[in-house]
Amino acid sequence: MSIIIKSEREIAAMRKAGRIVATVLEILKTKVRPGMKTRELDVIAAEEMTRLGAKPSFKGYRGFPASLCVSINDEIVHGIPGERVVNDGDIVSLDLGAVFDGFQGDAAITVALGNASQQAKELVATARGALGAGIDAARPGNRLGDISAAIQHYAESREYSVVREYTGHGIGRSMHESPQIPNFGHPGEGPLLRKGMTLALEPMLNIGDWHTRLGADKWVVLTGDGSLSAHFEHTIVITSGTPEVLTAL
Ligand code: MG
Asked: What residue segments make up the domains of the chain, in order of their start?
């Protein structure tokens, strides 16, 4: 499958969707606090997206029941919000997708609550840095493998593992377009990156090894060894120079 090159008009639409995702994540970041139920975060996400004229991408996607994924501690991705209460010291991944004017934005942050351990905070900082390393490698003339390798090198050189069974992805009119973007790989391999490609990069880093297991609800993905995991994601567009982050404020 080929990678779709977006027109300036399409990129402008994706910029709007991306900005809505960034705005809602920023609101969630300021509101999340110990004692809250994860369901409350989902309600805020849905209300804010409605207020901004967007629709949640995740709700109904393959039957996913919520607007937001909330994944705590050893949960990596795809946590369903519900009655679980977030606690002081937890690390909480908030993953959000919005569709506006037919185009998608997709981003995630991980927030360390209150007195999180130094170990947890370092994991979160490194996952954020790994996303930055991937974004830096997303330049025309590079190949997809350069992004994957940059993320892997950033994480593994700091002694974290990268989750292998879940990947970043192309994005546009659909939330998941070609190509899949693994968070590990070899420089110089894979498709050539070109201006106008829109990609969602999303490293997931574990303190332990990279193996995962599926939770009882068949949605939430957890680390196989119970170690902490952190996740960051941005939707970007490849330009002639430094990529533009579409899910930034
Ligand atoms: Mg994504």
From this structure: 8-245
Distance from the alpha carbon of residue 107 to the mean position of ligand 1, in angstroms:
7
Measure the CA–CA gap between 229 and 119, rounded to whole angstroms.
Answer: 11
- For 8-245, the fitting CATH number among 3.90.230.10, 3.30.2380.10, 3.40.50.150, 3.40.50.300 is 3.90.230.10
* Distance between Cα 106 and ligand 1 center (Å): 5
Q: Output the CA 197–ligand 1 centroid distance in Å.
A: 15
DSSP 246: T
Distance 36 CA to ligand 1 centre (A): 25
Q: What is the b/e burial string over 29-38, where b = at least 16 CB atoms within 10 angstroms of the residue's CB?
A: eeebeeebeb
Q: Return mean pLDDT, the chain.
A: 98
Q: What is the distance in A from the centroid of ligand 1 to the CA of 127?
A: 15
Whether residue 47 contacts residue 98, with contact meaning beta carbons closer than 8 Å, is answered with no
C-alpha 235 – ligand 1 centre gap (Å): 8
pTM (two decimals): 0.98
* 110 CA distance to ligand 1 middle (Å): 14
Q: Are 179 and 170 in contact (CB under 8 A)?
A: yes
Dump pLDDT digits (tens) for 149-185.
Answer: 999 999 999 999 999 999 999 999 999 999 999 999 9
Q: What is the pLDDT of residue 148?
A: 98
CA of 202 to the centre of ligand 1 (A): 6
Stretch 22-48: mean pLDDT: 98
**Residue 2 pLDDT grade (very low, low, confident, very high; cuts 50, 70, 90):** confident
